[in-house]
Amino acid sequence: MALVLVVDDEESVCEFLTEVLEDAGYRVQTAQDGPRALELISQNPPDAVLLDIRMPELDGMQVMDRIQQQDNRLPVILMTAFGTTEMAIQAMKAGAFDYIIKPFNLDELVLTVKKAVTMRQLAMEVEALREGRTPEPLSMETMIGQSPAMQAVYKNIGRVAASNVTVLIQGESGTGKELVARAIHNNSSRRDGPFIKINCAAIPENLMESELFGHEKGAFTGAGARKPGKFELAHRGTIFLDEIGELSLATQAKLLRVLQEKEFERVGGTEIIRVDVRILAATNKDLEHCVQEGTFREDLYFRLKVVTIWLPPLRERMEDVPVLARAFLQKYSREQNKSVTDFSPEAMALLMQYGWPGNVRELRNVCEQAVVLTRGPVILPEDLPHSLRFPQHAIKENFIKPGMTLKEIVADVERQVILKTLQEHNWNRTATARALGLNRRSLYAKMKEHGLLS
């Protein structure tokens, strides 16, 4: 998720732009003067800067000049309430990416930021290719969803990415836990270091220690040469321990030592290996219940869950189904060299009625199959699996009525989600807004739109 730095001496402007940009899917940092902005840029370079021209101490033109000395590829969008032709020309000649005038046209503002971020990410990708590195996929391309639940996930990623804190990612199978781990890594100071994934459920217990910590030559039958483990390979980067709930108690004890001491020995070795690694872990299990059952160490559990990010199942963010489905449709249509453009209203209605026990992974597989099977440019109900046309996992409230448009279906889902959350929080708007990842103003607007203010 891209990071935007907003620099303005007016706190209200910073707060307003933070709200607008977070709603558009960006992480946001703010500064109210030039020196603080330069400090933030040196600590954690953003993907774009929104910079007010008229500020005390250092004005925007001076700050932009210093930014360009630090990183001349960082796009700077200048803002001012005093727009003149001369100022615009001066700004663009000085190297500004663009120039916008207050009061803002919000659509234009968001579009300008999007263009700047895209340019920055493409420049980083080109640089990676020149240096022989494989660039990571753009995080905004891989994490899809604008529902309040996903906006809350994005914000949590933004809050933890810049630190080295251990993060536990929880959610059902198929919800996208690895994507969250990659987004944290890609938006951290370790982004240029390795991202090493290990699936703890896929490796036999007798090989797990060797996989994690490596082994020396002759350590066991078949160990013909020294082999570095995943922790060693992840030095100065991030290691992602997927399905960590499957680790044995013996391996958990060794992992705890790495978390505490940042050191280990290879299997069959005596040399102490010290590493600088950030640990991210994921599970679809209730680890607290596993602790109570004695299958997971309590001390390791508390070490891992310094910060927890919970990924909602797809059935709890049904408003994201259309955008996810169309993204997968575009991807697989391109891969299959076909010109499939959309779903028929009837096919989309079936997607919206289904309960998605396999979550986003199941939706992706359904879309791939539909693209392969369809004979025309539009996905029809007969292109979808039998399980969707005759579902055992239909959502409980069959709210889709004949003749409803997709917009009406999505609006009805949104109304149900908001109403259910209000009821769960005894109609406390502050608590409801927090649970949905909204601010109070946005919640009020949606309640008014859906007739929930009475």
From TrEMBL:
Principal localisation = cytoplasm
- What InterPro entries does the annotation carry? AAA+_ATPase, AAA_lid_NorR, CheY-like_superfamily, Homeodomain-like_sf, HTH_Fis, P-loop_NTPase, Sig_transdc_resp-reg_receiver, Sigma_54_int
Task: Give the highest taxon in the source lineage.
Answer: Bacteria
Please give the Gene Ontology molecular function terms for this protein: ATP binding; sequence-specific DNA binding
Q: What does this protein do?
A: May play the central regulatory role in sporulation. It may be an element of the effector pathway responsible for the activation of sporulation genes in response to nutritional stress. Spo0A may act in concert with spo0H (a sigma factor) to control the expression of some genes that are critical to the sporulation process.
Q: Which residues form the Response regulatory domain?
A: 3-117
Q: Which organism is it from?
A: Desulfofundulus thermosubterraneus DSM 16057
Checking Pfam families in the record gives: AAA_lid_14 (PF25601), HTH_8 (PF02954), Response_reg (PF00072), Sigma54_activat (PF00158)
What are its GO cellular component terms?
A: cytoplasm
> What is the name attached to this protein's record?
DNA-binding transcriptional regulator NtrC
Q: Where in the cell is it found?
A: Cytoplasm
**Residues covered by the Sigma-54 factor interaction domain:** 143-372
Tell me the GO BP annotations in alphabetical order: phosphorelay signal transduction system; regulation of DNA-templated transcription
As stated in the Swiss-Prot or TrEMBL entry, residues carrying the post-translational modification 4-aspartylphosphate are D52
